[in-house]
Write a structure and sequence with these properties.
The protein is 60% helix and 6% strand. By secondary structure, it is mainly alpha-helical.
């Protein structure tokens, strides 16, 4: 799956997730995406509004003119989630595939963990940990192989990357332990979840947004 397609799918999922909390106008959606989701910190209206238009065309969201604005002020469009959009969000949030633990995908999924089942959270966290451990092992092998040929600055950069990955692995271990030790019927079932890429990838791309006038 191409990077552009994957990013569009992530944006659509994030928009559905934010609208699942409450209706919002385009400016607020962009602000929340920029502030809370690192994958979209540079998001422009030129990217957001085509996404909203696509979601509107699919019947996943609605748009209404905001009421109560003063005379002469430009009417803002408020977006909300339709029942079909709610179903789509719930469907996507229950999926686990390798994209769920890649860099941008993991950040977006983590942002909506409060509405994600424990078993799904665990599988994503374990998948992310496995991916980072593979990345760390590769980095250490490469560093050891070329250590004598590296200047001090490049070596320092590599150490910094390894240490950052190690810190994230420790953080993931803490989250995984907390999930496994949490009370509830799903905690035991989650322990059996497989974190590897054996889960067949699902296509969360069939959701989209619509154009809006801000």
């Amino acid at each position: 799956m191409g990077g552009a397609v994957r990013r569009r799918q992530l944006l659509e999922f994030a928009v559905l997730g934010l609208l699942h909390e409450s209706p919002m106008h385009g400016y607020e959606l962009r602000r929340r995406l920029n502030a809370a989701l690192g994958a979209f910190r540079a998001l422009s209206f030129g990217t957001l509004y085509p996404c909203l238009r696509s979601l509107l065309e699919q019947g996943l969201i609605t748009e209404e003119e905001e009421t109560g604005t003063g005379t002469g002020k430009r009417q803002r469009i408020v977006y909300g989630l339709t029942p079909r959009g709610q179903e789509r969000f719930q469907s996507v949030i229950s999926r686990v595939d390798p994209g769920s633990w890649e860099d941008d995908g993991f950040d977006v999924r983590l942002a909506f963990f409060a509405r994600t089942e424990t078993e799904v959270r665990l599988r994503i966290l374990e998948g992310r940990r496995s991916r980072l451990e593979e990345r760390l092992d590769t980095a250490r092998q490469t560093s050891a192989k070329h250590r004598e040929r590296l200047d001090s600055w490049t070596a320092a950069l590599q150490r910094h990357g390894e240490e950052s990955t190690e810190r994230e692995v420790r953080w993931l271990n803490e989250l995984i332990d907390a999930e496994r030790n949490a009370p509830g019927p799903t905690a035991h079932a989650a322990r059996a979840g497989s974190p590897d890429g054996a889960h067949p990838p699902t296509d969360p791309s069939d959701h989209g947004p619509s154009e809006s006038k801000e």
